[in-house]
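--- STAGE predict ---
source: upstream dedup step, 1 unique chain passed
mode: sequence only
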Amino acid sequence: MKLLRTVAVILTVYALIEIADCLAILLMHFGLIENLYPAMSFLEFDELLNQQPIMLFPVFLYFASLRLVSALGLFRQRMWAFWTTVLVCVTTILWVPFLMPITGFELLLDATILFLLLLARFGNQPILSAG
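--- STAGE serialize ---
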């Protein structure tokens, strides 16, 4: 129970950071701020962030909304939140190579979230049942 709440708190903070990213993308699109992000591994993402940041807004919004919904569901101990968290963490891990170097920390964070989530869910269960 305590471990599940820890995962929910981490996801909430993570979602708030993603929401800040969404706001930054909007501010960049309207020319109110410059590109805040370092150079990415794939030049296409750099070009989008510099020329058309709004094109990446749905991606940032996807991660922010799923993390927030997952966190709220985990606070209420819902099974769908377990699977939503697995989905958003695995999706993030798959995106990491495209958004390096800024996603290096996200790889570690999402792997930790998945580990803690699985530990909270399956913690003391035996690997094989007797019989």
